[in-house]
Amino acid sequence: MTEPTKTTDTEKENPPENAQSILDFGAALTRTPHGAVYCLTIIGQIEGHTAAASNAKTTKYEHVLPLLAKLEESGDVDGVLFLLNTVGGDVEAGLAIAELIAGMTKPTVSIVLGGSHSIGVPLAVAARRSFAVPSAAMTIHPVRMSGTVIAAPQTYHYFERLQERIVAFVAGHSGISGEDFQDLMLKKDDMAADVGSVIYGEEAVSLGLIDQVGGLSDGLQWLYRQIEEQRAKKT
Prior knowledge:
The chain is about 40% helix and about 25% strand. It is an alpha/beta fold.
């Protein structure tokens, strides 16, 4: 009878690299017969130039950006799986991450679990293929800003330009038109105390925002097929 593997004191103090990645970044590299898949979570608040509260769950863009660049260049990674459950956060930090994901040549898949709200929407559509579970929620609303706001035409113009960037990115990386996405942003009767829309998994697919309703197994199967197709092209 095989005895259970025991964790030594040394392993507790210095966990394996994969375990440390889960602790530090919510990430893990798994080697399968289909190829090596790197799983990265985007959770909580997308933190930008200003640090979030110490008790908030965050995804830090200064961690994610160099990691994505490393994954693109790494010969040990064949595809990347993004698991999303985010409330949104810093607009420019979120767009920066989304642009880097969209620029990757390796197969990428995103799965919306729980929610991918606000700037989480561009993150969800940035991958080459996007999935959402039926219970997933996505909040779409106009750009907001906290802190001091100057009551001047220039401020409104800045908000308008920033919103145009988001609309253009989403429309360019999904099946929804810019006009339809902006209509969802400005919808008046869907949110009790705000302007915007809350849509769920199947509705997001029917609108063209997300590619397919599905969960982990669906996302992995699509990723494996893409990895195998890329290998076939190289041979």
